[in-house]
C-alpha cells in the first residue's frame, strides 16, 4: 500500500512541480517589471525614454532566462506600466497627447520584437546577431521619438537606419510625397522601380549576391512606402519590426505636420481678429478728428483763413497718421508671414533715429524725447526702413507705459562689432517673472494693461526685425523704476564702406 501510494503520488508531485515552476516564472516577470518601475519612477525619476530602455533590458533578460512566453508577458506588463507611470496624464491609462500614442506603439513593437528575438535558441554567432538587431531596434525607436520635427523626418529616419545598423546603402521611398531619401556611404542604383513596386504591391525583393533587400512599409495593412537596404541581412522578425518603426516615424511626422498647420491656422485667425480689433480702436481717434474738421470746413461756419488752415493741418496730419499705421500693419503682416526682405545699406545712427521719429510727431507732441547719440558712433549696416519700424515700436511702447509728463530717452553706444541702441522710459517697470514673456505675440505686461491700447504685437515685431539683422534685443527693468529696451545692430565694416 505504501508503494502504491508512492506511485500514485508521483504524478501529483510532478504536476505540482510544473505548476510551481510556472508560478515562479510569472512571479519573476512581475518582480522584474515592478523593480524597474520602482527604481525608474520613484528612485531615479528618469524620463520616459530612459524608462523605456530599462524595460527593454528587463524584457531581453526574461527572454534569455525563461523564453518567449515570459518575454511576451514582460512586454505587455511593461507596456501597461510605461503608459500608467510615464506618459501624461500620469496615473491613468489614458493618453492626452496624440504624439504619445506613437511613442507607446513604437515601444510595444520594439518590445515584442525584442521578446521574439531574445528567446530564439541559436549558436553564439546567431545569438550575437539577434542581440545586435535588438539593440539596433531600440536605438532606432529612441531616435524616432527624439527626431527634430523642424527637419524632414524621412531623411532623418534613413540616416539613422544607415548609422545604427551599419548598412552600406539605404533608400527610403515615401509614397505620400513621392520622394526617395538616400543614406549610407554607397548608392543603390536602379532601385527606384523596385521601391515603387514594393510600395504599391507590398512585395518583397531579395538579392543574396548584393546583400540587398527591398520591403514594403505598412501602416494598418496598407503600404505607405518602401525601403531598400544593402549590407548584413536582418532576420525576418527584425526586418518586420524595422518597417513598422519606420511607418510609425513617418505617420508621426505627418500627424505633427497636420497639427502644426492647424495651430498656424488658429494663430493666423487669432492674429487677424486681434489686429482688426486694434485697427478699429486705433483708427477711431484720427477718423473722428478728420470727420470733425472736414464737417466744419464744409459747413462754412469757419471763415477765418487761420482757423481754416488749422483744420486743414489737422486733416493732413491725421491722414498721415492713418497712412503710417496702414504701412506698418502691412509690414507686420509680411513679417508674420515670414516675408521679411532685408535690404541693407550703410546708415548713420542719428539719421536713422531721426527718420524713425519723424512719422511719430503727432504722437510725441508735448512729450520730451531726448536723443543722446555721440557723433563718433560708428555707422551701421541695416535696412533703415525696418529698423525704423522696430524703433517706433519701442518708442511707442515707452510712450504708452509712461506718465504724460515723463521723458523718453534714446541712447546709442558702440560695442564689439555692433552698435547698441536703447529706449528708456519712466513707466511702472516690468516684473522679473514677466520679462521672459514680454516679446511674445499678444502678450502685454500686467502693469497698465487695462489702460494701454494696442494688439500686443509691437515688441514681437521689433524682435523679429532685429533677429532678421542677426542682432539681439533685450530689456532691463525693475518695478517702479521704468524699463530700458536694447537692440544691437551690426557695424558697417570697412569693406562695406568701400
Describe the structure using short key phrases:
Heat Shock Protein 90; 3 domains; five-stranded mixed beta sheet; 14% strand
Verbal overview:
The chain has 15 helices and twelve strands. With about 500 residues, the chain is an alpha+beta fold. The protein folds into three domains: about 250 residues, Beta-Lactamase; about 70 residues, Helix Hairpins (Orthogonal Bundle); about 150 residues, Heat Shock Protein 90 (2-Layer Sandwich), CATH 3.30.565.10. α1 runs parallel beside α3, α10 crosses α12 and α12 packs antiparallel against α14. The N terminus and C terminus are likely disordered.
Let me know the largest β-sheet. 5 strands, antiparallel
Spatial extent as radius of gyration? 35 Å
Mean pLDDT: 77
CATH superfamily of the largest domain: GAF domain
Per CATH, the architecture of the largest domain is 2-Layer Sandwich
> What is the approximate shape?
elongated
Order of helices and strands: HHHHHHEEHEEEHHEHHEEHEEHHEEH
Classify the fold: give the CATH topology of the largest domain.
Beta-Lactamase
Strand order of the largest sheet: 2-1-5-4-3
- Uncertain ranges: 1-16, 494-498
Oligomer: single chain
The total count of helices amounts to 15
The class by helix and strand makeup works out as: alpha+beta
| CATH C-level category of the largest domain | Alpha Beta
Number of strands: 12
Distance between the termini: 118 Å
